[in-house]
């Protein structure tokens, strides 16, 4: 969640953000409508050459890893999504230990801290044991993928990916 505001509007901005996070109603009809919107967006993305080629590149380069997943996810996930899935996700993840409020620009830190403490006081504490994240890091696996789609026009589109220099490399 993100908001851009003038300094004088920061209190209202924090209030609105907290209201969205803590008091959203998840209407079943709206969920179904949004699913159709996302499915149409997925169809549109599949017609955009650059989107397709880079999705395929990442899928091939980072097999069996979240880095290889498309940003919209599998169509089946969208079709099977329910209001209950969304509520379960919110209850599990919208907790005080998994949230950060950050601000940049003309912001008074003490004022912002007070606003966050006031408006986010209702944020639930975690109801789960500590999450153990997998220790195995995604790795680049060089490979080749040929994907033919005659609907994309008479030209060929080629992408080449390779492992870059690590962040901590000397």
From TrEMBL:
InterPro entries the record matches: Metalloenz_LuxS/M16, MPP/UQCRC_Complex, Pept_M16_N, Peptidase_M16_C
Keyword Transmembrane helix: no
Domain Peptidase M16 N-terminal span(s) in chain numbering: 1-75
GO molecular function, one term: metalloendopeptidase activity
This enzyme's EC code(s): 3.4.24.64
SUPFAM superfamilies assigned: LuxS/MPP-like metallohydrolase
UniProt record, GO biological process: proteolysis
Ranges where the Peptidase M16 C-terminal domain occurs: 80-167
Major localisation: mitochondrion
Record's subcellular location: Mitochondrion
Required cofactor names: Zn(2+)
One of the record's GO cellular component terms: mitochondrion
Any matching Pfam family: Peptidase_M16_C
Keywords tagged on the record: Hydrolase, Metal-binding, Metalloprotease, Mitochondrion, Protease, Zinc
Protein name: Mitochondrial processing peptidase
Species lineage: Eukaryota, Sar, Alveolata, Apicomplexa, Conoidasida
């Amino acid at each position: 969640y993100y908001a851009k505001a003038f300094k004088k509007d920061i209190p209202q901005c924090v209030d609105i953000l907290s209201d969205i996070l803590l008091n959203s109603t998840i209407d079943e009809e709206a969920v179904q409508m949004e699913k159709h919107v996302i499915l149409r967006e997925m169809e549109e993305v599949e017609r955009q050459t650059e989107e397709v080629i880079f999705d395929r590149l990442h899928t091939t380069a980072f097999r069996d890893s979240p880095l290889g997943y498309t940003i919209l996810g599998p169509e089946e996930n969208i079709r099977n999504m329910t209001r209950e899935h969304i509520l379960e996700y919110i209850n599990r993840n919208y907790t005080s230990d998994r949230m950060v409020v950050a601000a940049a620009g003309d912001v008074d830190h003490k004022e912002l801290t007070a606003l966050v403490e006031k408006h986010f006081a209702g944020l639930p504490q975690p109801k789960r044991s500590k999450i153990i994240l997998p220790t195995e890091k995604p790795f680049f696996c060089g490979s080749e993928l040929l994907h033919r789609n005659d609907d994309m026009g008479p030209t060929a589109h080629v992408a080449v990916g390779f492992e870059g220099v690590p962040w901590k490399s000397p």
